[in-house]
Specification:
The protein has six helices and no strands. With 163 residues, the protein is an all-alpha fold. Helix 2 runs parallel beside helix 6 and helix 4 packs antiparallel against helix 6.
Length: 163
């Protein structure tokens, strides 16, 4: 129930961000080529949307099992070996996301907020832009823990999206 709500919230956020970047770029083109007065904030705004879409999209893709993977080796193993390999992969993902995206991302956010780094055109604190790192890292850790629980509950099969 909570995971499904989280999935819908993440998907909705990505839809809003994709729609926003679309309109931002369209406005940039209109203001530059039709109005002959390019908007100063649209380039920076579209860059920030792209950062959030890319990093949150990684969490969404991980949830949907849409990332590249080398399943040929895993598929040829026995059920027990499959379970061990899939568990090892999930533990590596949790470790990376917790340390690099979670801890490192939080340190980056805190440092940029402390140094009061502000974006040039929009005047937004850069720490708010970088907040997507620990947020996405936390989402991937949660999704990986769900995957871990499913590995040990059911017979491991090929990785397909979980409903």
């Amino acid at each position: 129930m909570i995971i499904k709500t989280l999935d819908k919230l993440l998907a909705g956020t990505l839809i809003i961000a994709m729609t926003s970047i679309l309109f931002t770029v369209i406005w940039q083109v209109i203001s530059r080529y039709i109005l002959q007065d390019p908007a100063s904030v649209t380039e920076e705004l579209s860059r920030f949307f792209l950062i959030w879409i890319g990093i949150l999209g990684a969490a969404y893709a991980y949830r949907q099992h849409a990332h590249l993977g080398f399943n040929l080796l895993v598929e040829r193993q026995s059920s027990v070996v499959k379970r061990v390999l899939l568990t090892l992969v999930e533990v590596c993902v949790i470790t990376f996301c917790a340390l690099v995206m979670g801890y490192g991302g939080t340190e980056l956010v805190m440092l940029t907020l402390e140094l009061d780094q502000i974006s040039a055109a929009l005047g937004i604190k850069m720490g708010l832009i970088y907040l997507v790192l620990p947020l996405s890292g936390g989402l991937i850790v949660i999704y990986s823990m769900v995957n871990l629980s499913l590995i040990h509950i059911s017979e491991p099969t090929r990785r397909t999206p979980i409903s």
